[in-house]
Amino acid sequence: MVALSMEVQKLKNYVDGKWMNVNKSKAVINPATGMEIVQVPLSDSDTVNAAVRAAGKAQKKWALVPAPQRAEVLYRVGYLMKERKERLSQLLTMENGKVIEEARGEVQEGIDMAFYMAGEGRRLFGQTTPTELKDKFAMSQRSPVGIVGIITPWNFPIAIATWKSFPAIVAGNAVIWKPATETPIMAFELAKIFEEAGLPDGVMNVIFGSGLVVGEAMVHHDDIRVISFTGSNDTGRNIASACGKQLKKVSLEMGGKNAVIVMDDADLDLAAMGILWSAFGTSGQRCTACSRVIVHEKVKQALEERLLAAMANLSVGNGLDESIKIGPIINQAAIDKIKKYIKIGKEEGAKLLAGGFELTNEHHQKGYYFAPTLFTDATPNMRIAQEEIFGPVVSIITVNSFEEAIEVNNGVTYGLSSSIFTSDVNRVFKAQRDLDTGIIYVNAGTTGAEIHLPFGGTKGTGNGHRDSGVQALDVFTEWKAIYVDYSGKLQRAQIDVES
Ligand code: UN1
């Protein structure tokens, strides 16, 4: 296990290639034990201003470094992450609570993103296009936007940061990054890796602090031309309206109410496993977590039996213990929110089949734990079937047809991920056309996106942009259209065209 020094370490900001102390700080708690693990700085807006000045200077030079050389730094970042995978994973489990196997998976997602985006350094494809006129050449190419701000959540503290920062860096931008204060260790470790990998000073700046101070300052700074945010719906909407007024580009990813559809021709054992993994993995604290099961009435009972049997084997506890399947919830406020929805679900008339309570016995020490919870007989418009709970709570809704299943799936304000279990190939193709989410799985649960595909959703999940995949470059670049006239004479577009 990674040894954290006995004395609680105070993390530092990383600005312009220097490690900077801040006067104010607060405790970061390991959600599995309730114990303080580090102190996270609470920075002010002056730090943001200083970082933006440094980033501005650094970006001008960075943009002139040929992209394959920019990519070299990302390759080194990837190899350093790989070397430190176990250390990073254990620290991730300590600060976030996710079980060690999932922590290793998340770090791997970051490593994959490093190598994938490093490869983009030799692509960053533009286009050539015919022109209307003779002896003229037209092309479009990506250019960096300048300084970009990224604001990342606690539930995937390293993977989501890589989805945003690596494409920004390879495209020639400088980054100001505000990680969540609940999980600052991954950001601190990644900043050290950037430094060791030889990223020039000022290209990546990590500022710890609250959304209301550091986040606000970033969103309102004139020189930060893009904000890429993953987090809560309310915060995302506030950021969007502030950015809208400033004509600042903003990319938002704000959660989901993801469903697994189980049709009457599905492999029910497989479906139960898929539901279990996507609903209770990461204790349900994923944007992509399954929180609704839409089941055909003919197989409802058989599915419930399988789910209950499998749920009985889920061990809940400290995720550093390899035998534990479900880790803690991030903090007491999150537990309270989950408890509120259990009460709402009962009042709405859904039937509680399993769980529904906080786990507080001695074995669970002072951490924050909640029992995996299954409601059934939920109806599509209940609040537990509409609102994001962000915990290990799933509600079963019964339908009578494929068409009804699609309608129920689409009948929420979110649109991130959906899944269907069926053995009918026609239903597979209809489902991929008709499900209205940004991510669709067939015969697999709602989680498990890979980094080289676009990640994001429709409707209330976001605002049309995508993280990861080559599409992420659209957030961090501007398109330039370039016309080269080699005719040696004035050729007027639309006018001097031979008919
Ligand atoms: C998130 O919950 O915001 O697809 C990210 C998945 C992971 C990423 C989740 N690869 O579940």
UniProtKB/TrEMBL annotation:
Signal peptide: none
Superkingdom: Bacteria
Pfam family, one: Aldedh
Boundaries of every Aldehyde dehydrogenase domain copy: 24-482
Enzyme Commission identifier(s): 1.2.1.3
Catalytic residues in the record: 253
Alphabetic keyword roster: NAD, Oxidoreductase
Protein family (similarity comment): Belongs to the aldehyde dehydrogenase family.
PANTHER family linked: ALPHA-AMINOADIPIC SEMIALDEHYDE DEHYDROGENASE (PTHR43521)
Subunit field text: Homotetramer.
Protein name per Swiss-Prot or TrEMBL: aldehyde dehydrogenase (NAD(+))
